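Morning run. Coffee first, then this:
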Amino acid sequence: MDEQPAMTVPPELGYADWLTAVAPAVRTLGWERHMHVDNLGEGVSIALLDVLPPEDVELVVEGPPTFSISIFLEGEGTVSIDGGQPLVVTPGTVVICSTDQIVSGVDVLRGGVRLRIVDVRFEPSLLADLGGPLWRHYGGRLLVDRSVPESGAVMVGFPAPPALLQVAQHISGCLYRRADVRRLYLRAKALEMLAIVMGLFLETDASAAGRGERAQRKVEEAQRLIEGRLHEPWTIARLSREVGLNEKSLKSAFRAQVGQSIHTYLTQVRVEAAANMLSTGQTVTETALATGFTNLSHFSKTFRKVTGFSPSSLNRRR
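And here it is:
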């Protein structure tokens, strides 16, 4: 295994300093020479850890507010925030963590397996300039959520897409030793990694927005079907098939968009149409059949419940 340079502690890393949380545990284990930290300036730092733990290791860590993207190129174990469930990590797992206060946790690393991690940290002030906490709006792309909201801590994990793995490999394999060139190269890679992650979340948001627009169209289609074919025996299952949206989604979207359930809307539209027909001289029987009521007694009860008077009284009143 190629050894990393001895651990360096750059000055003025700020409150997103990776070492603040991990250095004490690393020193206790004697892993200093296997870790390297680069302070890239303006709220960005990268830590590389490449070590072969001889046995299972438990790291108790505590750190200040930060936003981090950690990619496990190699290694196995779990990471967790105090009060939350452990997140299982394997080669290729991305762990995104965002905290707005001091948070502690426990990392358990499997012994006898090479551990190679690329950990990129961003100060919240930098992220504020980029549009805020997009990572809080996570969706189906994420493998598992191990956040602890009451502690102001978000931690999620998911399989790294190829583009993200490639950037992590570039960072891990950086050969530049001249300080200014290395800093420029790694900073560019750190921001590229951030851009890829933000793109994933924005894409998830865009997909959610697309699903919302589709559901809206399906609800409008369902309304047109009901209003245009009142005489047909509509059920939620049949409407769902007609518009091409599953029952649960249709019911939820309908209530959110129209403000009432499908059944209530159907009844209301039918009774309104029936009242108009009765007012033009149609008989009660004709009206009931034309508006989807096959049982006159049920029609009369429903009509009276909605309007406050019977269909026959309206017909006589005309």
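The chain is about 45% helix and 20% strand. Good start to the day.
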